[in-house]
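Changelog-adjacent note: as of this version, every example in the card shows the full chain rather than a window. The one below runs 372 residues end to end.
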Amino acid sequence: MPFPSEVYFSNAVNRLLQEETSYDKEELKILHEKNLGMLNPEQKNVYDSIIQNVYNKVGGVFFVYKSGECGKTFMWHTLYCRLRSEGKIVLPVASYGIAAVLLSGGRTAHSRFHIPLKLDQDSTAGIRHGTDIAELIQQTDLIIWDEAPMQHRHAFESVDRSLRDIMSDVDKRRAKKPFGSITVVFGGDYRQILPVIPKTSRAEVVGSTLNKSKILEFCQVFLLKQNMRLHAGNTEMENKVIADFSKWQLLVGDGKVENFSPDADTGEMLIKISDQYVIHTMQNPIESLFEITYPDFLRNMSSHSYLRSRAILTPTNVVVDDINNSILEKIPGTLHTYLSQDSIDDVGDEDNEFISAFPVEYLNSLNMPYVP
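Full-length structure tokens:
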């Protein structure tokens, strides 16, 4: 294999800066021209406002509020294709890993900005002067922060303090501007998951969101409403079904759906789900759900397109296990079960009664989170 150039071994080279400036500018320019013509008027308005703000170098904070399927990720892609094709630096981050994977060069916000795991109202991000990440931020033109409503407001405020400090080396006046006068765009939907705070009240969860932060005072808010899935070459009937379901979901999220009333015992709000969204069965509900979602399963179980085009979503892992076990029973062939826990390591003396307290049958029943 060819030996790397000596420049890569030099301590003077900022590898973070190299990563963010090594994109194929011609390829990005072609992608941008293609995507730009596909933006709808709502997306184009957001795109123009952000691009103008970046070019004027005045800094600014934007919040793009949207419901699902409004083409938010596509708009992010168009933005950083434009700026990166011109040699500008864009840092796309997200509040969790799956969303970050969807962004080109994306990272989680904690990884990119070194946000502490334990946060309070006085926390700062772990970015020090003179480091590679500090130099990268000083040359950054745009930060895109996806799925912002899931993040605790202290995370945004800690990054704000650190960026003001870092950018004060460039211009002392930047220390008084939000995020050190770097253009920052937040995106997300408050109807989805808010910050997860174990064993706390609803009021504290709501109080931890971005809209309770002082940063929101500087935000220019845009609202995306147009569902892009209605323009994906579907039939008129398919578009109507998607539109009706999307409208019903938004009404549920806003608490405006019909038959919306509090439960007499718990006080929780209850809704009546329309019959068209319910599978009525008196037999095995999992079996009925599976048959409707995966019709003619045995004939199509080896088809990638068949499996990619459908899925069953559940609120808990217990239901996932039930569905997986039901499907495994239908697949022809011999079923092998591999038990994850058979013994306890480091139990001390052989006469210790600790071993007998945890028999093999109990250890076999353990189902660790994130481990299939």
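Structural remarks: The domain at 6-226 is CATH 3.40.50.300 (Rossmann fold).
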